[in-house]
Amino acid sequence: MAKTTLRYDTSGMTKKERLAFAREIAAMEREAARERRRRNRALLIGGVSFGVVVVLALAAWTLWSRYQETLAGPADMLSDGIVLTSDGSTVSARTTARIEPGASSVATDPSTLSQYPYVVLYLDAGDPKSRTLWSTDAAQLTSWLTSGYIALEVHPIARAGAFSERAADALGCVADGAPDTFLAVLDALMTAGGDDDASARTADGVLGAVSNAGVTDDAVLDCVRGDRFGPWVAASTARAEAAIPNADVARLSGTPLLLVDQKSYTGALDDANGLMTFISKLYAAASGATDDGTGDATSTPTDTPTDGATETPTPTPTPEATDAG
């Protein structure tokens, strides 16, 4: 801004008075200039400060939003587990909403799966007992599931350290973005948990297992790299330890936990025929078979309906089918 020079009539003043007046006017103008500089500096600092506050507020909001996002559960795991069914040839995940930040899980309603024997698994990839059950019965369960004989709900649990947490987080990522590969990834991670090479249980090892199981989606792999569902893993494990819905046990006291139509399996984990016998007995009881001569409570159901009200067959394989387990 150009400097403004004020003109004053000093014709009636003596030389001394004019000099004094001029000095006073100069002092006033210097003070006015200083005041303008102070005001401009204050406005500049205030503007910068406001801008910084806005930027920090936006950054804080972004970080908070991202943090809140990490508290949400994976898609298709509203119950903290993924429900898998089959049309007789193709296994697919049941579509559900995710658990929103601050919300709790919603248990699967067994009545919506009434046409199946309903199997629920709580597995920890870092737990040797879980791996024993899986290695013994995975092939049989997968066969039954693929054939449409059972519905299977899997809950990843993390109670055995860092690998358990990484594996459960990875399974959350897969359920969220590539659910059709869930069983393959679960099998790969259960195998990695027992690998003699400790590198299989590192973050890179888990990522490699997921990739080798057939996951190619970059978003899913980035999810695994970033431990996207870590907070959900901790929360879902805590919920299972507090209460197990639709079960004859109150809470999860250890893994594995296997439920068939809400009844817990207590047989030997390495008994390939034990689970088949357990399911057969439950099916026989549900279908009305007895041990009084009108039916065999331990018989294996056939591929045909057992009563006129049953439109969809719910067979289970014969005992010989477990030899591959």
Q: How much of the polypeptide forms β-strand, as a percent range? A: 5-15%
Report, as a whole number of angstroms, the end-to-end distance.
90 Å
Number of separate strands: 6
Q: By helix and strand content, what is the structural category?
A: alpha+beta
- By DSSP (H or I, 4+ residues per run), the number of helices equals 8
Proportion in helices:
40-55%
User: Which term fits the overall shape?
Assistant: rod-shaped
Topology order in helix (H) and strand (E) letters: HEEEHEHHHHHEEH
Report the sheet with the most strands, covering strand number, pairing sense and barrel closure.
Answer: 6 strands, mixed
- Unreliable residue runs: 290-325
What is the averaged pLDDT score? 82
Taking all Cα atoms into account, the compactness measure Rg is: 35 Å
Strand line-up across the major sheet: 2-1-4-3-5-6
